[in-house]
Specification:
Blueprint: H1 3-19, E1 30-32, E2 41-44, H2 46-52, H3 56-70, E3 74-80, E4 83-88, H4 90-102, E5 117-121, H5 133-151, E6 155-162, H6 167-179, H7 185-188, H8 192-216, H9 221-227, H10 229-242, H11 246-270, E7 276-279, H12 280-296, E8 301-302, E9 308-311, E10 319-323, H13 331-345, E11 350-356, H14 360-372, E12 382-386, E13 389-391, E14 394-395, H15 406-424, H16 432-452, E15 460-461, H17 475-494, H18 511-521, H19 523-533, H20 536-556, H21 565-588
Parallel strand pairs: 5-6, 5-11, 6-7, 11-12, 13-15
Antiparallel strand pairs: 1-2, 2-4, 3-4, 8-9, 9-10, 13-14
Helix pairs in contact: 1-3, 4-18, 4-21, 5-19, 6-8, 6-10, 8-9, 8-11, 12-13, 15-16, 17-20, 17-21, 18-20, 18-21, 19-20, 20-21
The structure holds one RNA strand.
Amino acid sequence: MNLETSIGTIVAEAVKTLYALEIDANQIQLQKTKREFEGDLTVVIFPFVKAARKSPEQTGQEIGEFLQKNNPLISAFNVIKGFLNLSISQNYWIETLNEIHCNPSFGTKTATEDAKLMMIEYSSPNTNKPLHLGHIRNNLLGFSIAEIQKANGWKVVKTNIVNDRGIHICKSMLAWKLYGNGETPASSGLKGDHLVGKYYVVFDKAFKAEIKELMDKGLSEDEAKKSAPLILEAQKMLLAWENNDTEVRRLWETMNGWVYEGFDKTYKQLGVDFDKIYYESETYLEGKSEVERGEASKAFYRREDNSVWADLTGDGLDEKLLLRADGTSVYMTQDIGTAKLRYNDYPINKMVYVVGNEQNYHFQVLSILLDKLGFEWGKSLVHFSYGMVELPEGKMKSREGTVVDADDLMEEMIETARETSQELGKLDNCTPEEIEAIARMVGLGSLKYFILKVDPRKNMTFNPKESIDFNGNTGPFIQYTHARIKSVLRKAADQEIDFSSLTGTDFAISEKESYLIQVLTEFPAVVRQAGEEFSPALIANYIYELVKEYNQFYHDFSILKEENQTIKQFRLVLSESIAATIKTGMRLLGIDVPERM
RNA sequence: GGUCCUGUAGUUCAAUGGAUAGAACAAGUGUUUCCUAAACACUAGAUCCGGGUUCGAUUCCCGGCGGGACUACCA
């Protein structure tokens, strides 16, 4: 039984005995005592004052006396206004630390044989442009959520759906064919995804020029967009693709191959991966046949122009197109097919889509459509809807060239970390490989922490110039603390001090130390909550608090110079437990922590 | 127009309905013969406006005002 439950139970007992008030133990409001007051844990008294028919102060006093008499864990108490502050005995904290220290998987669970399976879709790139800052948030959130759910005992399958077909893909193919002169990643030195992205932009420019020309000739903008030779050519190419035209298919495979090679590098650098990748080119046909099945079962209907629609007005939404008049599929069609295939492939208990909040409507509709098609899991899809990353000047727009490229950004962060390390001169006796590995850990740690510490549901601002920070509430601050603890532990090991466990428990510790243990004990609950709320930010903020507290301790107390051997051992055990928790917590965020930096 | 999200120091972020709204960066100042100063300490600075519910509201409800997203035979 943990501390909260045991205190909750005894408080419930107290109010029952004193005031004949029946209250459930987990309804008791408990909170960590604020720093400026004496105590560890606080009971909020206000809910009992009515039944007690006494002042909050008096009620608190009575409950406090009851608790102290009946629970040896409570060493002292005080009442301020309606708050009963309890001090917990030092022995409790010391023994708790020992338990934490002995538990290598503290805070996390491992999936059992019969654990439920969660599939998490994230990343979902288009093969016509390189990944940018928005994708970074998506990838980091998806990966971290997967780690967090695993730590909560789920089996997790990480999946990626690649938008590898469609008119937009044909655009870059066409531009390459027309203007590329056979350029390849090898011949140009460009990363594959960047090369293809370049031709997507080339297409857009040429297309715009054609539109302007046509408009100058008197066409309306809409007419111009529909009749520009380039777009007609792209549509022809899509049709050829759908008809398995050998030449088009070969070009498609070649260019997508370049892109995948590029994406793989980016994913690897970012430290994310997938267990199963789906491609829209392999799922869209399934979607089409599902829509046709839905039409046959009258869930959907066909219009005179031969297009297929779902009427969602009964659900408070509009009508939704599912197949175009020419029979080709749309985004929604493909997502239906992909969902079905996934449930065929895996015994999914929970399906989670990590997709930006701009697609809230899409997923609302998807869920309803799958339900209408008779899939009992349709309504249970979870859209993990996260906020956009904005730049100080507003939203990123690829066409206006204001996107922050993922590869460039990561490289920049690593370079800055490299320079900082060099300036501080702390790695002078490390090998070049070690220095490089640390620069990478710190640079990426800074970026990842910056993104993940923010509540995922909120939009966030990224300032390329100012957001790169290695001081304060940042990844490197946490990494630094870990490295510093490790350094102390190495020295202790050199001196052959045994800190494998506490040999005694009968000694006095400071408030700072017992507080640190208290913060440590919260870790499992934070991991659980982060899983329930899909929020890596909770873990990030928790670790920051732990680290900040530890740094104060480190500054004010000596570890290796402490003369009392028992206390020295205690501080080493405490430090090692904190280092382990930092490492576990950061691992849940997908951030590595170095042994030295 | 409709639906949804959002508004906290100069800036970027915190705060299960609880005590004097926390941090970090930026500004100003101090701490290194001492386990890593990428640290620690100090100073100054904020809940968009108006109602309501409550013993208590940044949080919940209603109404304004501001910002954003969606509302495509694009994905």
